[in-house]
Amino acid sequence: MMKPLGLLFVACSFAFSQEATTPIQFSPEPLLLGKIEQGAVTHVVLKGKNQTTRSIQLETVMSQNVGSSNFKFPKSIAPGKEIKIEFDLNTAGFEGPFAHRIVLVEEGGHPLVTMIEGEVDAPILFSRQMLDAGYLSPDSKPEWTIYAWNPTGKKFSLGLDSLSSRQFTLQVTPVTLNTKKFDEIQEGGSTPGLKIVLQATNLGKGPTNPKMKSFRQIVTMKSTTWPKATPELLVVGYWK
User: I need a labelling partner for 73 at 20 to 30 A (CA). Which of 35, 184, 196, 214 fits?
Assistant: First the structure.
């Protein structure tokens, strides 16, 4: 018994759509990397299979997010054959959950997308990570007091990196903290931590673009306790 032409058209269209959107099926999808230490370099291996009846020619493979490098991939994947893509993921600058799109670009520009997900454990937590500098003038030297601690209670050192030290000064005092309420960090608890006084000393002469008066500066710190970690603060403000 012949299928009605309408149903046959729908079935063929669905099959074509499936092949067009998922010619390579990765397993698992997404690839779950679990928890990763901040600053670690993880070697990632993606495994998939060409589900089509044609050879897939790859021009390149890339990530739409920072941190991925050294991609290795086959230029051609025959019909029904498995594929393996390898790359290194550097979590310096990451913190908390992440979801990255890995894009395979076929010859001709057609993108094929898969995902990796994970969570980066930052060894240093701050009571605030975004600091408001308010309205700025060239001689502004705003100052902030915040707290830092390790989630496991480990003692640590903290200082500014060479670039941030050109614009900011940092005073660090060991304290004990009550960290039970993240929004209300107070001194006097049982968790070893640091009291940080950060001051801006050289923010510049004003906006480089008169139409863009907002100010945004990342303050990067370093710790000899975790040399690969990248603890950062964000200073925002507005030029008068």
Answer: 35
